[in-house]
Request: fold
Amino acid sequence: MSRTIVVGAGVIGLACAYSLRRRGREVVVVDMGLPGEACTKGNAGWITPSISAPIPAPGLTLTSIKWMLKSDSPLYISPVAAPGLARWLWRFWRYCNPRDFVAGLNAVASLNQSTHAAFAQLERDGVAFELHRDGLLFVFKDEGYMENLRREFDYYKNYGYSVPDRMSGDDIRRLEPGVSAAVTTGFLVKEEAHVRPETLAAGYLAKLRELGVEVKSGVRVVRAARTGGRVTGIETDSGSLSGDEVLVAAGAWSGQVTELFGVPLPVQAGKGYSITVNGGGPKLTRPVYLGEARIGCSPFNGSVRFAGTMELSGINTELDRRRVRGIRKGIGDYLAEPLGEAEGTEWVGMRPLTPDGLPMLGKVPGFDNLFLATGHAMLGVTLAPVTGEVMADLMTGEGSPIAKPFDPGRFRW
Reply:
């Protein structure tokens, strides 16, 4: 039986380990922290193929220039930039054009076609997690801003979505009374769903252990063993591991791992923030996207989470109070019940970003048995089950035509 070492126990690494184990692979998972504790733990948990367009988009360059030095804006670039960030931003901005945007959107939409079915299959397989199928409500204060986003649904007509009907502010408040009078328009996408992401990670972890997968927590990879283009194992701070193949799925930390193999990755950390209120806070019955503020609201069993912002400041878990205040202000602008200054548990997580906004799925150029599954940005939860299946297809030799646009070889090494 072939043995696979998966580096990373976030939702992507766990999903890949699960799919590989179901294909008959012996699997061991290692993570420098606890499973599901990094970027997975505090995000909004949306399963939303309809808003999975790449981050680099036409017009984003001018918008981002206005935002990037304003500390409470949806996008913030720290004046103390991370190593390599200037070059990465140059590559990112080169993808902010209509041709690359549409190509990337179609690639992710193709990957997403089985997303909802994949989550349903997880339920049938006995993976236990909190899942809600209540759709996704978009709310806006500006009609033009709303129409710009609603028009993106034209791209998804070939993928099972129709352009959603425009709703008035009164229509929205009848559906969701917790929305404030400042909201004038919006639309509802009925097909979408959301999970509490930490329960998804816990469900995967429990099922993996049931299937005999070893998951090693608090283990850091410190050295790589290779002969030419073949990886023979890894050295960790708690001992050596041998395997027939290695899959790096360590999110924003993936580049630190691949550097040990002599492979630099074009991945930057995009810091996101959230506030989770248990047993109180604004009352919502379904996920709500606060349009101009770019904040996602996710009601869970007994709590509600507010997530947003993108900060480029390297890999660090420092919580910037100004960013959190920006989320709190946005909530007050759109929802009838504001969030108190000290209310809720605040969280920060690192999203892995590539210059073209697409994940890297596949074999590392120059290697026979080193694979990548990283760069999912804000789509880690949405794409986790299908990423697991695609990587299992690629690593067991079955092949996956829909994986071609995500080949790591599209970047120069």
